[in-house]
Amino acid sequence: MKHENKVVLVTGAGQGMGKAMACRFAREGAKVVAVDVNPDAASATAAQCGNGAIGIGCDVSDSAAVKDAIALAVNTLGRLDVLVNNAGVGSVDQLLDTPDEHWTRVIGVNLTGTFYFCREAARVMQGNGGCIINVSSTAVATGEGPSHYVASKAGVMGLTRSIARELAPLGIRVNTLVPGPTNTPMMAGIPDEWTQAMINAIPLGRMGEPEDIAAVASFLASADAGFVTGQNIAVNGGMAFL
Ligand code: NAP
Questions:
Q1: Is 116 labeled as catalytic in the residue annotation?
Q2: Mean pLDDT of the chain
Q3: Does domain 7-235 have CATH number 3.40.50.720?
Q4: Which residues, at least 6 apart from 224, have a Cβ–Cβ distance to it below 8 Å?
Q5: 3-class secondary structure for 128-166?
Q6: 55, 114, 201, 224: which could form a disulfide with 46 (CB 3.0–4.6 Å)?
Q7: Ligand 1 atom at minimum distance from 182 CA
Q8: What share of the chain has pLDDT > 70, as a percent?
């Protein structure tokens, strides 16, 4: 029960890695705030977590909605100890055919949404300490992904490094968790031959599972990682080094 009585907010918690992280933190004693753009999915994850978890519908790219979500979490559960910025979107655009609105949306959710939640969480964590985990992607190392997605996830790494230095004196640690290809609904529509090509590029010989990611998130949020901040922590079966 290494997260007993902590309040842990996970974005994009309606499915995939976010759901696995929310459930793991709850199993380890945390009170979970499951945030998702789909309010029903957020509530379903909260119900599965139990232990006083709450679900909140919130589009992370909406600054006012993010402020409201943090306020609701703190007013309901009394504090905020851990923030996991996991919500993310992608699409399969090639550069020459990328519409402006796809660029704006992917950067808006993956990078600006992470910034909004970091800023609001740090405001309530200051004085109490805390931990922030921002989710990036191994695509930053390999370049294998669409331009908006890879740029947004590289931005998450830079954001993390900057605020890790700035927030360290407040006792807030900030790290980037960097998954490789992982078996979630985001990957569900990918053709089998692409999936096999990805597995062939992973030295450990398999895709990641959401629980692989949740295990490392739990470690990063724990006292065992008390001297770890500003780092890229890759969970990718050896696919690339960060
Ligand atoms: P997923 O299965 O698509 O789940 C993402 C969740 O985020 C969904 O519940 C989604 O809701 C929610 N979401 C999307 N836009 C949102 C928004 N604006 N505000 C709040 N919630 C929003 O994805 P995943 O595979 O678990 O990925 C989780 C994170 O890991 C993402 O940041 C992704 O980029 C990153 N990642 C994934 C992989 C991989 O191989 N799966 C690899 C590297 C990095 P809806 O479904 O309703 O849109």
A1: no
A2: 97
A3: yes
A4: none
A5: CCEEEEEECCCHHHHCCCCHHHHHHHHHHHHHHHHHHHH
A6: 55
A7: 40
A8: 100
